[in-house]
Amino acid sequence: MRDAVIVDAVRTPIGKRNGALAPWHPVDLASEVLTTLVTRTGIDPADVDDVMFGCVNQLGDQSTNVGRMAALAAGFPEAVPGVTIDRACGSSQQALHFAVATVLSGMADLVIAGGVEMMSRVPLGSARATGMPYGPRVLARYRRESFSQGEGAEMLAEQYGLSRTALDEFSVRSHTLAAQATDAGAFAGQLVTLPDTPLTADEGIRRTSTVETLAALKPAFREDGVIHAGNASQISDGAAALVVTTSERARALGLTPLARFHSGSVIGADPVVMLGAPWPATHKVLARAGLGIDDIGAFEINEAFASVPLAWLAETGAKPERLNPLGGAIAVGHPLGASGAILMTRLLHHMRNHGIRYGLQSMCEAGGMANATIVELAG
């Protein structure tokens, strides 16, 4: 019976908007994680059956199939195809799911899955700047003129009784844990060295963040709201990628897997609240895996807004200390189409470094969706 394993995973440091990575074209940045994977694993690029990349705002610099262009920019043979996937913020997590499904089905033996987003060059919401997003029937069904993730974050905070103080405390936790992980070298084995770029660590971490400093920030979506720039994910740039193959092929290539893909799920929920799908996705993937919440040793739940992981905790009963132990997107940023692959890269290396058997990743996605993934440490 075929299986699917991840033999390596790398990412760039995450850059702040208009920061150190802003000069990079997204195709070139994506090509750097591809070439790094080839160098680290020793695989022949000609053996790669497909390159699957997530990217959300597919226009301008990110148009024309960045997955395919990244493979060409990395010097892969022209016979290696590429595809670009949009499942909103979960795009590169979905790329991983598609890569795994393709390998498990026997349609491919070795696939690279990843994602890239350069929000400095292609701003958030660019793809909605023309035309009529959503369509008249969807807007009529929900009796709305548009959909707002920020308003959804406020709805979650209200529904779960999350005060601004609680949200800000979680945000400070994110920065503190990210700084501690960086100082401890937790990311050293996963970061790509970029030529002519001095950035060697995630750029957005604010080491002096406090609840008191966050209290001075104005609410972003409601005049009397609790969501603001300090307890939401940062607008960022970055890329990441993972090599997916079978354990049999890994042995033939002399590669030791990091982890086995155990189970995956994807689910939809209310598109108005929009951000509430990670917990039903978590319940679904745990049931599919035959595991309980306490069987999971580490969780990566994307910090799009602080209300999301806190609501997820309330719904799942997970141990808080296992949630985002390295900090999250509030501290380091959320480069949309790259974030799924970035979270999985962080999770896999953390599991290996600490001998954690099972890890789970999930993230909210625009349109009211979420992917969830369980991986098992290779033994």
Derived from helix and strand composition plus strand pairing, the structural class reads alpha/beta
User: Main beta sheet, described?
Assistant: 10 strands, mixed
Taken in chain order, the helices and strands follow as EEHEHEHEHHHHEHEHEHHHEE
User: How would you state the average pLDDT, rounded?
Assistant: 97
**Alpha carbon gap, first and last residue:** 18 Å
The stretches of 5 or more residues where confidence is low (pLDDT under 50) are none
Q: Please provide the count of β strands.
A: 10
The helicity comes to: 25-40%
Estimated share of beta-strand residues: 15-25%
The radius of gyration over CA amounts to 19 Å
Choose one word for the global shape.
globular
- What is the number of helices? 12
Please sum up the structure shown.
This protein has 379 residues and is an alpha/beta fold. The chain is 34% helix and 18% strand.
List keywords for this structure.
single chain; 379 residues; alpha/beta; 10-stranded mixed β-sheet
Report on the architecture of this protein.
There is one protein chain. The protein has 12 helices and 10 strands. It has 379 residues and is of the alpha/beta class. Strands 1, 2, 3, 4, 5, 6, 7, 8, 9 and 10 form a 10-stranded mixed β-sheet that branches. The chain starts with a strand and ends with a strand. The model has no long low-confidence stretch (mean pLDDT 97).
